[in-house]
Protein backbone atom coordinates (compact mmCIF):
# COMPACT_ATOMS: atom_id res chain seq x y z
CA UNK A 1 0.00 0.00 0.00
CA UNK A 2 2.83 2.38 0.87
CA UNK A 3 4.44 1.71 -2.54
CA UNK A 4 1.16 2.40 -4.34
CA UNK A 5 0.62 5.55 -2.32
CA UNK A 6 4.16 6.74 -3.14
CA UNK A 7 3.70 6.10 -6.86
CA UNK A 8 0.37 7.91 -6.75
CA UNK A 9 2.09 10.84 -5.04
CA UNK A 10 4.77 10.95 -7.76
CA UNK A 11 2.19 10.89 -10.54
CA UNK A 12 0.26 13.67 -8.84
CA UNK A 13 3.43 15.72 -8.36
CA UNK A 14 4.52 15.42 -11.99
CA UNK A 15 0.99 16.25 -13.15
CA UNK A 16 0.93 19.32 -10.93
CA UNK A 17 4.33 20.44 -12.22
CA UNK A 18 3.19 19.99 -15.82
CA UNK A 19 0.01 21.93 -15.16
CA UNK A 20 2.00 24.71 -13.50
CA UNK A 21 4.43 24.93 -16.42
CA UNK A 22 1.56 24.98 -18.90
CA UNK A 23 -0.21 27.71 -17.00
CA UNK A 24 3.05 29.67 -16.69
CA UNK A 25 3.25 30.00 -20.48
CA UNK A 26 2.09 33.40 -21.73
CA UNK A 27 0.32 33.39 -25.09
CA UNK A 28 0.00 36.70 -26.92
CA UNK A 29 -1.39 37.91 -30.26
CA UNK A 30 0.33 40.30 -32.71
CA UNK A 31 -1.73 42.30 -35.25
CA UNK A 32 -0.13 43.77 -38.37
CA UNK A 33 -1.49 45.12 -41.67
CA UNK A 34 1.46 44.19 -43.89
CA UNK A 35 0.89 41.14 -46.11
CA UNK A 36 2.87 38.05 -45.04
CA UNK A 37 5.18 38.31 -48.06
CA UNK A 38 6.33 41.84 -47.21
CA UNK A 39 9.75 42.13 -45.55
CA UNK A 40 8.29 44.19 -42.69
CA UNK A 41 5.78 41.42 -42.05
CA UNK A 42 8.53 38.80 -42.12
CA UNK A 43 10.56 40.85 -39.63
CA UNK A 44 7.54 41.07 -37.34
CA UNK A 45 7.18 37.29 -37.49
CA UNK A 46 10.88 36.84 -36.74
CA UNK A 47 10.51 39.18 -33.73
CA UNK A 48 7.78 36.89 -32.39
CA UNK A 49 9.98 33.84 -32.96
CA UNK A 50 12.93 35.50 -31.22
CA UNK A 51 10.85 36.37 -28.17
CA UNK A 52 9.75 32.74 -27.87
CA UNK A 53 13.32 31.52 -28.36
CA UNK A 54 14.97 33.81 -25.83
CA UNK A 55 12.27 33.33 -23.20
CA UNK A 56 12.67 29.57 -23.69
CA UNK A 57 9.04 29.19 -24.65
CA UNK A 58 7.69 31.14 -21.69
CA UNK A 59 6.12 33.61 -24.14
CA UNK A 60 4.48 32.40 -27.35
CA UNK A 61 3.13 34.93 -29.84
CA UNK A 62 0.58 34.16 -32.55
CA UNK A 63 1.09 36.46 -35.51
CA UNK A 64 -1.80 37.88 -37.57
CA UNK A 65 -0.64 39.70 -40.76
CA UNK A 66 -2.73 41.30 -43.50
CA UNK A 67 -5.25 42.94 -41.10
CA UNK A 68 -6.55 39.53 -40.04
CA UNK A 69 -6.97 40.65 -36.42
CA UNK A 70 -7.35 44.43 -36.73
CA UNK A 71 -7.58 46.95 -39.56
CA UNK A 72 -4.55 49.21 -39.92
CA UNK A 73 -6.23 52.46 -38.69
CA UNK A 74 -7.75 50.63 -35.70
CA UNK A 75 -4.68 48.65 -34.65
CA UNK A 76 -3.51 51.04 -31.93
CA UNK A 77 -6.95 51.12 -30.31
CA UNK A 78 -7.21 47.35 -30.69
CA UNK A 79 -4.06 46.96 -28.60
CA UNK A 80 -5.22 49.52 -26.02
CA UNK A 81 -8.52 47.65 -25.59
CA UNK A 82 -6.92 44.21 -25.60
CA UNK A 83 -8.39 42.91 -28.87
CA UNK A 84 -4.75 42.38 -29.83
CA UNK A 85 -1.89 42.13 -27.35
CA UNK A 86 0.76 43.56 -29.68
CA UNK A 87 0.42 45.60 -32.85
CA UNK A 88 2.28 47.39 -35.60
CA UNK A 89 0.80 50.20 -37.62
CA UNK A 90 1.37 53.59 -39.20
CA UNK A 91 1.08 56.39 -36.66
CA UNK A 92 -0.19 58.76 -39.36
CA UNK A 93 -3.33 56.61 -39.68
CA UNK A 94 -4.40 58.23 -36.40
CA UNK A 95 -3.87 61.79 -37.50
CA UNK A 96 -3.41 64.30 -34.67
CA UNK A 97 -3.12 61.60 -31.99
CA UNK A 98 0.69 61.50 -31.87
CA UNK A 99 1.81 65.15 -32.05
CA UNK A 100 5.47 64.66 -31.12
CA UNK A 101 6.00 61.58 -33.25
CA UNK A 102 4.31 63.24 -36.23
CA UNK A 103 7.31 65.58 -36.53
CA UNK A 104 9.38 62.63 -37.71
CA UNK A 105 7.28 62.44 -40.88
CA UNK A 106 8.02 66.01 -41.97
CA UNK A 107 9.68 66.54 -45.41
CA UNK A 108 13.21 66.97 -44.06
CA UNK A 109 15.10 65.19 -46.84
CA UNK A 110 15.50 61.66 -45.51
CA UNK A 111 18.13 59.59 -47.26
CA UNK A 112 17.49 56.04 -45.99
CA UNK A 113 15.34 53.84 -43.79
CA UNK A 114 18.25 53.27 -41.41
CA UNK A 115 18.61 57.03 -40.95
CA UNK A 116 14.87 57.60 -40.51
CA UNK A 117 14.57 54.73 -38.03
CA UNK A 118 17.46 56.04 -35.91
CA UNK A 119 15.88 59.49 -35.91
CA UNK A 120 12.50 58.05 -34.90
CA UNK A 121 13.89 56.16 -31.90
CA UNK A 122 16.09 59.10 -30.92
CA UNK A 123 12.92 61.23 -30.71
CA UNK A 124 11.23 58.50 -28.66
CA UNK A 125 14.14 58.28 -26.20
CA UNK A 126 14.66 62.04 -25.97
CA UNK A 127 11.09 63.25 -25.49
CA UNK A 128 9.32 60.16 -24.02
CA UNK A 129 6.02 61.28 -25.61
CA UNK A 130 3.01 61.05 -23.31
CA UNK A 131 0.91 60.31 -26.39
CA UNK A 132 2.04 56.66 -26.11
CA UNK A 133 1.20 56.27 -22.41
CA UNK A 134 -1.82 54.04 -22.98
CA UNK A 135 0.43 51.29 -24.41
CA UNK A 136 3.96 50.03 -23.87
CA UNK A 137 5.97 51.13 -26.89
CA UNK A 138 8.38 48.48 -28.12
CA UNK A 139 10.15 50.57 -30.78
CA UNK A 140 9.63 52.78 -33.82
CA UNK A 141 10.87 52.35 -37.38
CA UNK A 142 10.51 54.44 -40.53
CA UNK A 143 10.86 53.94 -44.26
CA UNK A 144 13.36 55.50 -46.65
CA UNK A 145 12.74 58.61 -48.75
CA UNK A 146 9.14 59.06 -49.84
CA UNK A 147 8.93 60.16 -53.46
CA UNK A 148 6.28 61.22 -55.97
CA UNK A 149 5.16 58.31 -58.17
CA UNK A 150 2.82 59.04 -61.08
CA UNK A 151 0.88 57.01 -63.64
CA UNK A 152 0.62 59.02 -66.85
CA UNK A 153 2.33 62.35 -66.31
CA UNK A 154 5.96 63.23 -65.61
CA UNK A 155 6.43 65.67 -62.73
CA UNK A 156 9.58 67.75 -63.16
CA UNK A 157 8.35 71.10 -61.83
CA UNK A 158 5.88 72.73 -59.48
CA UNK A 159 3.87 73.69 -62.55
CA UNK A 160 3.52 69.98 -63.38
CA UNK A 161 2.18 69.27 -59.89
CA UNK A 162 -0.67 71.75 -60.08
CA UNK A 163 -4.04 70.06 -59.60
CA UNK A 164 -2.71 66.49 -59.63
CA UNK A 165 -4.52 64.09 -57.29
CA UNK A 166 -1.93 62.22 -55.24
CA UNK A 167 -2.61 59.51 -52.66
CA UNK A 168 -0.97 60.36 -49.35
CA UNK A 169 -0.98 59.43 -45.66
CA UNK A 170 -0.88 61.81 -42.70
CA UNK A 171 1.70 64.59 -42.87
CA UNK A 172 2.61 63.74 -46.45
CA UNK A 173 -0.73 65.22 -47.50
CA UNK A 174 0.55 68.64 -46.49
CA UNK A 175 3.59 68.08 -48.71
CA UNK A 176 1.43 67.54 -51.77
CA UNK A 177 -0.75 70.51 -50.88
CA UNK A 178 2.30 72.75 -50.52
CA UNK A 179 3.55 71.62 -53.93
CA UNK A 180 0.25 72.57 -55.58
CA UNK A 181 -1.31 69.12 -55.82
CA UNK A 182 -4.50 67.71 -54.31
CA UNK A 183 -3.81 65.16 -51.56
CA UNK A 184 -6.10 62.13 -51.25
CA UNK A 185 -5.65 60.50 -47.86
CA UNK A 186 -5.89 56.71 -48.13
CA UNK A 187 -4.06 53.68 -46.75
CA UNK A 188 -1.52 51.74 -48.76
CA UNK A 189 -3.83 48.74 -49.07
CA UNK A 190 -6.17 50.87 -51.26
CA UNK A 191 -3.45 52.46 -53.37
CA UNK A 192 -3.09 49.91 -56.19
CA UNK A 193 -6.71 50.02 -57.26
CA UNK A 194 -6.88 53.81 -56.94
CA UNK A 195 -3.91 54.16 -59.29
CA UNK A 196 -5.14 51.46 -61.66
CA UNK A 197 -8.65 52.92 -61.94
CA UNK A 198 -7.49 56.52 -62.28
CA UNK A 199 -9.02 57.67 -59.01
CA UNK A 200 -5.68 59.37 -58.34
CA UNK A 201 -2.90 60.50 -60.68
CA UNK A 202 -0.12 59.23 -58.46
CA UNK A 203 1.03 58.33 -54.98
CA UNK A 204 3.57 59.66 -52.50
CA UNK A 205 5.46 56.60 -51.25
CA UNK A 206 8.94 55.07 -50.87
CA UNK A 207 10.50 52.93 -53.59
CA UNK A 208 9.85 49.73 -51.62
CA UNK A 209 6.11 49.99 -52.22
CA UNK A 210 6.65 49.59 -55.94
CA UNK A 211 7.47 45.94 -55.28
CA UNK A 212 6.13 45.31 -51.76
CA UNK A 213 2.67 46.50 -52.76
CA UNK A 214 3.16 45.91 -56.53
CA UNK A 215 2.62 49.61 -57.30
CA UNK A 216 5.43 49.47 -59.86
CA UNK A 217 2.95 47.64 -62.09
CA UNK A 218 0.81 50.76 -62.40
CA UNK A 219 3.08 53.79 -61.86
CA UNK A 220 5.34 54.81 -64.75
CA UNK A 221 7.32 57.75 -63.36
CA UNK A 222 9.17 58.52 -60.14
CA UNK A 223 10.24 62.10 -59.44
CA UNK A 224 13.59 62.19 -57.65
CA UNK A 225 12.40 64.65 -55.02
CA UNK A 226 15.01 63.54 -52.45
CA UNK A 227 15.76 67.04 -51.06
CA UNK A 228 12.23 67.21 -49.61
CA UNK A 229 11.77 63.49 -48.96
CA UNK A 230 9.49 62.65 -46.05
CA UNK A 231 9.22 59.40 -44.11
CA UNK A 232 6.39 57.53 -42.40
CA UNK A 233 6.76 56.36 -38.82
CA UNK A 234 5.63 52.88 -37.80
CA UNK A 235 5.24 51.78 -34.18
CA UNK A 236 5.30 48.40 -32.49
CA UNK A 237 3.43 48.51 -29.18
CA UNK A 238 1.98 46.21 -26.53
CA UNK A 239 -1.09 46.22 -24.34
CA UNK A 240 -0.02 47.81 -21.05
CA UNK A 241 -1.78 45.31 -18.79
CA UNK A 242 -0.22 42.37 -20.63
CA UNK A 243 3.21 44.00 -20.42
CA UNK A 244 2.84 44.56 -16.68
CA UNK A 245 2.03 40.88 -16.16
CA UNK A 246 5.38 39.81 -17.58
CA UNK A 247 8.27 39.16 -15.23
CA UNK A 248 11.10 41.71 -15.05
CA UNK A 249 13.39 39.17 -16.72
CA UNK A 250 10.94 38.68 -19.59
CA UNK A 251 10.55 42.45 -20.00
CA UNK A 252 14.32 42.94 -20.11
CA UNK A 253 14.66 40.21 -22.73
CA UNK A 254 12.01 41.81 -24.93
CA UNK A 255 13.60 45.25 -24.63
CA UNK A 256 16.95 43.79 -25.72
CA UNK A 257 15.26 42.21 -28.74
CA UNK A 258 13.49 45.50 -29.51
CA UNK A 259 16.80 47.37 -29.81
CA UNK A 260 18.07 44.78 -32.29
CA UNK A 261 14.87 44.57 -34.32
CA UNK A 262 14.50 48.34 -34.68
CA UNK A 263 17.79 48.26 -36.58
CA UNK A 264 16.64 45.24 -38.59
CA UNK A 265 13.45 47.03 -39.63
CA UNK A 266 15.43 50.10 -40.74
CA UNK A 267 17.81 47.91 -42.75
CA UNK A 268 14.81 46.04 -44.14
CA UNK A 269 13.35 49.26 -45.50
CA UNK A 270 16.58 49.99 -47.37
CA UNK A 271 16.81 46.48 -48.80
CA UNK A 272 13.23 46.69 -49.99
CA UNK A 273 13.85 50.15 -51.47
CA UNK A 274 16.55 48.59 -53.65
CA UNK A 275 14.23 45.75 -54.62
CA UNK A 276 11.44 48.24 -55.37
CA UNK A 277 13.77 50.28 -57.56
CA UNK A 278 14.77 47.23 -59.59
CA UNK A 279 11.16 46.09 -59.89
CA UNK A 280 10.10 49.56 -61.08
CA UNK A 281 12.87 49.59 -63.68
CA UNK A 282 11.97 46.06 -64.83
CA UNK A 283 8.46 47.30 -65.59
CA UNK A 284 9.84 50.09 -67.77
CA UNK A 285 9.53 52.82 -65.16
CA UNK A 286 11.31 56.12 -65.69
CA UNK A 287 13.02 58.43 -63.19
CA UNK A 288 12.45 62.17 -63.49
CA UNK A 289 15.11 64.56 -62.21
CA UNK A 290 14.61 68.03 -60.77
CA UNK A 291 16.79 70.93 -61.87
CA UNK A 292 18.70 72.88 -59.23
CA UNK A 293 16.29 75.76 -59.72
CA UNK A 294 13.30 73.47 -59.12
CA UNK A 295 14.93 71.93 -56.04
CA UNK A 296 15.18 75.43 -54.56
CA UNK A 297 11.51 76.08 -55.37
CA UNK A 298 10.39 72.78 -53.85
CA UNK A 299 12.34 73.38 -50.65
CA UNK A 300 10.84 76.85 -50.34
CA UNK A 301 7.36 75.47 -50.96
CA UNK A 302 7.50 72.91 -48.13
CA UNK A 303 9.42 75.07 -45.62
CA UNK A 304 6.23 76.54 -44.07
CA UNK A 305 5.08 73.01 -43.15
CA UNK A 306 7.66 72.88 -40.35
CA UNK A 307 6.49 76.23 -38.97
CA UNK A 308 2.86 75.16 -39.20
CA UNK A 309 3.69 71.98 -37.30
CA UNK A 310 5.42 73.90 -34.49
CA UNK A 311 2.51 76.33 -34.19
CA UNK A 312 -0.13 73.62 -34.14
CA UNK A 313 1.49 71.44 -31.47
CA UNK A 314 2.25 74.49 -29.31
CA UNK A 315 -1.50 74.58 -28.67
CA UNK A 316 -1.02 71.24 -26.88
CA UNK A 317 1.84 72.57 -24.80
CA UNK A 318 4.56 71.01 -26.96
CA UNK A 319 7.67 72.86 -28.08
CA UNK A 320 7.44 71.82 -31.72
CA UNK A 321 10.45 73.86 -32.78
CA UNK A 322 12.60 71.98 -30.26
CA UNK A 323 11.40 68.67 -31.70
CA UNK A 324 12.12 69.72 -35.29
CA UNK A 325 15.51 71.15 -34.36
CA UNK A 326 16.39 67.91 -32.56
CA UNK A 327 15.46 65.87 -35.64
CA UNK A 328 17.53 68.09 -37.95
CA UNK A 329 20.53 67.79 -35.59
CA UNK A 330 20.24 63.98 -35.59
CA UNK A 331 19.81 63.39 -39.31
Report what the structure shows.
The chain is α/β, with parallel strands linked by helices and 331 residues long. It folds into two domains: 25-106 and 114-142 and 232-275, Bacterial extracellular solute-binding protein, family 7 (D-Maltodextrin-Binding Protein, domain 2, 3-Layer(aba) Sandwich); 146-230 and 283-329, Bacterial extracellular solute-binding protein, family 7 (D-Maltodextrin-Binding Protein, domain 2), CATH 3.40.190.170. 47% of the residues lie in helices and 17% in strands. The protein is built from twelve helices and eleven strands. It has helices spanning 2-24, 39-54, 75-81, 113-127, 158-161, 172-178, 191-196, 209-212, 240-245, 248-282, 292-314, 320-329; strands at residues 26-32, 59-64, 86-90, 135-142, 146-150, 165-168, 182-185, 202-206, 221-223, 233-239, 286-288. A six-stranded mixed sheet has the order 7-6-8-5-9-11, with helices on both faces. Helix 2 (39-54) links the parallel strand 1 and strand 2 (59-64). It is globular and about 65 Å long. Residues 5-23 have low confidence and may be disordered.
Amino acid sequence: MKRIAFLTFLVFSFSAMFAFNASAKTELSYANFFPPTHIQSQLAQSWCDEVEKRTKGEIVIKYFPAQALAKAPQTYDAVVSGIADIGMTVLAYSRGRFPIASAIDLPLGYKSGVQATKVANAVLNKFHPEEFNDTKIMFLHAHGPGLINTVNKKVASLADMKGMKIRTTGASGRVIGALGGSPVGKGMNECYQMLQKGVVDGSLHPMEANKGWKLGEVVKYVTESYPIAYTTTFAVFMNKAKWNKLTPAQQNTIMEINAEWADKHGEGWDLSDKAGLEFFKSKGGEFVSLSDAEVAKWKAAVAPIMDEYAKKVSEKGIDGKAVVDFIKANM
